[in-house]
Amino acid sequence: MKRFLPDRFTQLLIATVLLATLFPATGSFENVMHIASNVAISLLFFLHGAKLSREAALSGLKQPKLHLLTLASTFLLFPLLGLALKAAVPDLLTPQLWMGVLFVCTLSSTVQSSIGFTSIARGNVPAAICGATASNLLGILVTPLLVTPLLVTLLLHRHHEGSGLSQVLSILLQLLLPFVLGNLLRPWIGGWINRHKVVVNVVDRGGILLSVYAAFSAAVAQGIWHLFPPTQLALLVLVNAILLGAVLLITTYGARALKMPRGDEIVLVFCGSKKSLASGIPIASVLFAGSGAAVVLLPIMLFHQMQLMLCAVLARRYAEQQERAEQAAGAGAAVAAGR
Q1: pLDDT tens column, 84-124
Q2: CATH code where residue 17 lies
Q3: Where in the sequence is the domain holding 83, given as residue range(s)?
Q4: pTM of the model
């Protein structure tokens, strides 16, 4: 049963949302939290840049087909499925929640969980490292600068707060500039970051929790929980499940149709189906300023836990299949040797 329970970070996210609901930041404290959240986001992307190995990303040139398919699943298949689902049942969710769902579809893949599940499933771990790293590198650029503004403006016919120019400047200053600086300084600070992973993870996750608290505090003041009844949240879970299930099926059977090696199939399935909460929350905090950020965060927070639970089951199933195949091969070899 433990595998179906929320992971520790998801529990912290839920606790943060409850804290913001019961004790939202108001008045001058709200301004302080807004500034602290912006600083935390910049620091978070600085650390992302410092942690990113350019060598791992460039090593994908050795397996271009696999990594192109993974990136296509992340940045093309997901958005197309999201748009198709919205076109099919536009009134299933509110426009704000559909915005959040489409935002999830534009995010990059995760790094740690993609690699971890690939390892559990006994897949091609070096390729998973490369694919997840390349996805995160491209996601820093693709999600905020191209895909999300295009979907929100042209397809949802909504304009979020601020002009396009101000949003671009915010992205450049808060996300891209710290990320590039961190990556440029990696030769000097990379060793320190590797030696102090616990401290870096605390800062990393603390910044995300701070952003969530600030976003939901603003949303609570606008009455967010009165806007979305439980039925809407249940339908949101259904939409997330359809998207995740469809991508897992397409990547699994697509890899088999292309006769990809088993290890590469596992990489495509796990790297191509993930969406990064760690990148999504700070990007949403910049793109959807104010109370709108909290609404956009609901789908990715739910999707995060759903992908962890389902992929944990799939990873163990892959591992068991491999163990049975090895046992059968060993038994066959023993029979052959005894003849």
Answers
A1: 999 999 999 988 899 889 999 989 998 888 888 999 998 98
A2: 1.20.1530.20
A3: 2-323
A4: 0.84
